[in-house]
């Protein structure tokens, strides 16, 4: 049986492997395909697709967009997007500018509590890529203010902590529309991670379905078997196809590996074939 991973991040957002390295790693892991779903950027897709053609690995052009739902942030995955669509790129530019505004405020907050961190250090950490909270975490660790990136998030960079700044994002409907306009399929990412009751989650999925949602990420690294069963049931109830992925970030999430998550993740290629029928 062939296996895939439909939730993977590169160094173009907050992962640590380049798009080309991801393809080589996918081949090493004996994956037939993976989706590159970087946060708010598509910069790495062409490199991954090109290397995938050389290595015999199918690369699905994707993205992960943040959206505001009531008092929390949810994530919408896009698959098979036209990553060169001008209007889609304009929408991403707005998101990236908002990230820059947020980064400036987060840096000011860190400096105000005595952290000697500069924008130059953050840019060096990010390289050519957009600065993310993962890069803040890495610099905080390197400067000795935390023992790990995970601890940096826990102490300073998560909601309610000293350096956290909420960013402005699009609505779920806008994200779904952007993905559809770019000829893609829209999927709710890791549905159980939003701290919603079962009723609240059903209400969310019902709303998103009305707004054009195509699928649900029902197989995920952190799901229990019971949670996976519930997500599959919800997908069936709302006539949504299912996807599955590890949410691989390389060294930024060392406990999660590409294709297998925490060791027990298996996403069959048949799911990708079902998705293609919806395009």
Characterization of the model:
Strand 3 and strand 4 form a beta hairpin. Helix 1 runs parallel beside helix 2 and helix 4 crosses helix 5. The chain is an alpha/beta fold and 279 residues long. It starts with a strand and ends with a helix. The protein has 2 domains: 189 residues, Metal-dependent hydrolases (TIM Barrel, Alpha-Beta Barrel), CATH 3.20.20.140; 66 residues, DNA polymerase, domain 1 (Orthogonal Bundle). 42% of the residues lie in helices and 16% in strands.
SSE blueprint and pairings:
Layout: E1 4-8, H1 19-28, E2 33-36, H2 45-55, E3 58-69, E4 72-79, H3 86-112, H4 119-126, H5 133-142, H6 149-157, H7 172-181, E5 185-188, H8 198-210, E6 215-220, H9 225-237, E7 241-245, H10 270-276
Parallel strand pairs: 1-2, 2-3, 5-6, 6-7
Antiparallel strand pairs: 3-4, 4-5
In short:
The chain is an alpha/beta fold and 279 residues long. The protein is 42% helix and 16% strand. The longest helix is centred in the middle third of the chain and has 27 residues, at 86-112.
Task: Please supply descriptive tags for the structure shown above.
279 residues, alpha/beta, TIM Barrel, DNA polymerase, domain 1, seven-stranded mixed beta sheet, 10 helices, 16% strand
How do the SSEs run, as a string of H and E?
Answer: EHEHEEHHHHHEHEHEH
Give the helix/strand class: alpha/beta
CATH top level label of the largest domain: Alpha Beta
Number of helices: 10
């Amino acid at each position: 049986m062939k296996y895939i991973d439909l939730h993977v991040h590169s160094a173009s957002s907050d992962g640590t492997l380049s798009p080309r390295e991801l393809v080589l790693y996918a081949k090493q892991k004996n994956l037939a395909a993976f989706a590159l779903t970087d946060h708010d950027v598509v910069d790495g897709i062409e490199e991954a697709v090109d290397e995938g053609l050389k290595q015999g690995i199918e690369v699905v052009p994707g993205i992960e967009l943040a959206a505001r739902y009531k008092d929390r942030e949810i994530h919408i995955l896009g698959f098979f997007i036209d990553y060169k669509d001008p209007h889609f790129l304009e929408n991403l530019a707005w998101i990236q500018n908002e990230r820059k505004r947020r980064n400036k405020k987060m840096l000011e907050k860190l400096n105000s509590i005595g952290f000697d961190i500069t924008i130059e250090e953050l840019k060096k950490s990010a390289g050519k890529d957009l600065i993310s909270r993962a890069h803040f975490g890495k610099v905080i660790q390197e400067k000795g203010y935390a023992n790990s990136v995970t601890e940096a998030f826990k102490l300073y960079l998560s909601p309610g902590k000293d350096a956290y700044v909420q960013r402005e994002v699009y609505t779920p409907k806008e994200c779904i529309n952007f993905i559809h306009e770019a000829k893609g399929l829209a999927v709710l990412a890791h549905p159980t991670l939003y701290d919603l009751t079962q009723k609240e989650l059903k209400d969310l999925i019902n709303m998103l379905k009305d707004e054009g949602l195509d699928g649900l990420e029902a197989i995920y690294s952190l799901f229990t078997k019971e949670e996976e069963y519930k997500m599959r049931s919800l997908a069936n109830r709302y006539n949504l196809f299912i996807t599955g992925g590890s949410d691989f970030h390389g060294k930024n999430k060392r406990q999660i590996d590409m294709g297998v998550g925490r060791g027990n993740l298996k996403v069959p290629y048949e799911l990708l074939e079902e998705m293609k029928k919806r395009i």
